[in-house]
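Please annotate this fold before class:
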Amino acid sequence: MKIMFCLGSLGIGGAERVITNLANTFVKNNEVAIVVSTPKNEIYKLDKRIKYEVIDSLTEKNKIRKVFNRVKRTEKIIDEFKPDIIIAFLPEPSIRISMLRKKIKTPVILSVRDDPKVDYKKWKLFIPMKLFFGNADAFVFQTEEQRQFFSKDIQKKSTIIFNPINANFICEPFTGTRKKIIVSVGRLMPQKNQKLLIDAFSIVNKLHLDYELHIYGEGTLRNELQKQIDDLSLTNCVFLDGVTSNLKEKIYDASMFVLSSKHEGLPNALLEAMALGTPCITTKFSGGGAEAIIKNNINGLLVDNDINQLSEGINYFIENKEQAIKCGLEASKEMKQ
C-alpha cells in the first residue's frame, strides 16, 4: 500500500511526533510519503525509505499565491506518488486535502489533533472547514469532545483513536528514590501555559525549597518566561532547559511530570510520562484529553487551570509520595494498552 501523510511541518510538536511514529512503522511493509507545507528544523528521525516532500517555495512572499501554489503542488505530488490513502493532520493541510478530494481518486482521512473550538476559531479556517471537510472519507478524533464540535455527517464518518506511544517509553517504572525534580515538556507558547506552572511553583517553593522545576521545550515566550522566573527570584530552582534528545531520561526518575496547558488534543508528553510510571498532574485543558486518560488520584491528578489548585496538587504529590508512586504505577500499567 502507498500511504501519504500531509501536515504543516516536521518541527517540534505532538502531531509531528505521531506522524513520525506512524510513518516509521508503516514503511516496514508499505511505501510512505510525508508532504509538509513549510521546511522547519526537523528533530524527529525518519526512516530513510520514507519519501519526504516540501511544497512551499522559500522565495514566494505573496500569501494568496502561496495558498494557490500549495494546492497545485500537492496535487502534482499526489499524481506522481499515486497514494492508496492520504492522511492529513492539522487545520491547513486538512482543508487543502479536503478541497482536492473531488479532483482525486484517493480516499482521504482527516485527523484532528487539538481542540477544534480553538483551531477553527478564526473565520479564515472556520469557513473553508465548513465548506470542504465533508468531502473527506473518514475522520479520526482523539476525544469525544473533539468529535462533538463537528456536524452529524462528519461524526458518522469518524472514529476515536488514542495516540500511539513510542515503544521506547514502554518500560518498567523507576523503583529507586526519585529526584526532587518536577518536569514539564512543551513548546514555550501561550497554549502550554508555563506561566501558570511557574506561578504555581513559586507557591510550592515556599514549602519545599529543595525541589526544582525543569521545563523542556523552545518557543516565542522564552524571554518572557525567563523574566518571570527572575522576577519571582526562582533563578536557582526553575530552569528552561530547551529541547533535549533524551527526554525519557529526564522524566524517568523525576518526582512528577506536570502539564499546565489551556487546550490540547491528547498530549504525547503526558502519555509518555504516564507510560514511564512517573507520577503525573495535568490541568483540565479544553479538548477533553485530560479526562479521557486521567482518573483523578488513581492514575494521576486532574486540577483546574488555576494557580491554587495546581500548587496544591504538586504539594500533595510531594507530601504523599506513596500515593504519587501508586498513581504512577497504575498509569504505566494502563498505558501499555
Summary: DSSP finds 14 helices and 13 strands in the chain. The radius of gyration is 21 Å.
